Amino acid sequence: MKLSVISPVKEWNLIANGEETSIKKVPVQDKQAKDVLAQEGHALDGGLDSGWLWDFGTSDPISSYIYCLCAGNYHEIPNTDPAPTPMRIYCRKSKADFVDSKEIFRVISEGINFYEVLFGCKFPFKKYDIIYCPEYRIGAMENVGAVTFNDLFLKPADQQTDRGKMFHAYVHLHELAHMWFGDLTTMVWWNDLWLKESFADFCSATCMNETPSLYKVYKDPQTLFLSFVTAALRADLKPTTHPIRVGIKHTGDGETAFDAISYQKGASWIKTMDNFIGRKALQEGLASYVNKFAFKNTQLEDLVTCLNASLHKNGGQDIDLL
Predict the structure, then answer these.
(1) What does the domain layout of the chain look like in residue ranges?
(2) Candidate list 40, 76, 142, 175, residue with the active-site label
(3) Is residue 197 among the annotated active site residues?
(4) Which of 41, 140, 278, 303 gives a 20 to 30 Å CA spacing to 272?
């Protein structure tokens, strides 16, 4: 995907999946700007007499639902510390003082290092921007290279709790895990939505528990897995309970699949599987899966095939993981 955008406001920042390759502040009457609009079938508004043309490089192949373009008077916080990939944070200027940017960048860097080992694959994209959006309708979204967060996460120091700080870090690691599981490899259909969400929950909680520098800072991250189990049990007691993998007939049904069963119960099952087949078999199976299906669509059976091949390679027997 190649993206060019004309911003009507000089002070705006524009953030998309790819890196900005050039920013040209030009009048809208400029031929290049007109050509961009004409290609998209748009007529000039007349009231828009000047703008700024942002060109973004051609992105890697991505699914349409993880496309992102954010535009507005965002305050930019660049990362000045060594990191596995370029990173920036964007937020409202009024909330900039609530952003612990060094800690967020540190959490993401630790997460990338952990996931590169877990998935046997380097961070697959060119950058990692974090955008805190006002009045965002969900908690966060794993758009490739431009992850969006509800800016309710940003609170003054006297309103923060240890549990809240841990949850904030956990959500960052959840969305980061999607870069490999959900973005680099994307489910064919909504019936396997649970798999990418459950895996992201499993990965983020595992990362916090097994990365010493995170475990020491965030109190009792092992309680994350306990909370998964209790949330799953509560959901199973309701009349609306359903299998972890539920059939989805159309996209409208997909919205009903976002619940504690598709997230926390699935994550609990994956943790059980991790203990059952062993971390080595899991890592090798994930590495095979991610590298074989990079920038492709997959389904649960593809992952199971890779895990069973890893089990067989490590002297184990094929088991029915379905």
Answers:
(1) 1-67, 187-313
(2) 175
(3) no
(4) 140
